[in-house]
Amino acid sequence: MSERTLVLLKPDAVRRGLIGEIIGRIERKAGWTISALELRSLDQATLEQHYGEHQGKPFYEPLVAFMASGPVVALVVEGERVIEGVRALAGPTDPIAAAPGSIRGDFGVIVRENLIHASDSAESAERELKIFFPSAV
Ligand code: GDP
Ligand code: MG
Questions:
Q1: Is 68 touching ligand 1 by the criterion CB < 6 Å?
Q2: Binding residues for ATP, per the UniProt record (predicted)?
Q3: How many separate domains does the chain show?
Q4: pTM above 0.95, yes or no
Q5: What CATH number is attached to the domain comprising 48?
């Protein structure tokens, strides 16, 4: 069963020149396709919507500031089990806990600057795709 997920390459990934590296890993998974892709700067309202579940947590304000600190690459990826699959490619939130071989495990050190966002469930994907690609939903 084909699914769609929202992926964001965070400002650290863009600044460090890792767009190609990370998108390459996603592209190489058999049968997955990128159906939308855009470099864009995120405003406060978009970030508040996207990270609403984290409002009030100690890391929320610095997270939003970081996500607005430079452009991100937003993608829609489609394919078999792609929601679970991109999360597996990314690795856990803390890059030091993430296994080598995962995107966060290979390239990240600090928790906030962990390179990639990927929707964590079908419900999150639907909600997030509406925020970033309303015309594609
Ligand atoms: P994700 O789904 O793996 O991206 O993690 P969450 O949804 O829990 O958190 C959203 C983002 O907030 C993470 O990707 C990190 O960039 C950041 N974050 C989460 N937890 C922490 C934390 O404990 N400390 C800091 N500094 N940042 C965090
Ligand atoms: Mg999350």
A1: no
A2: 10, 59, 87, 93, 104, 114
A3: 1
A4: yes
A5: 3.30.70.141
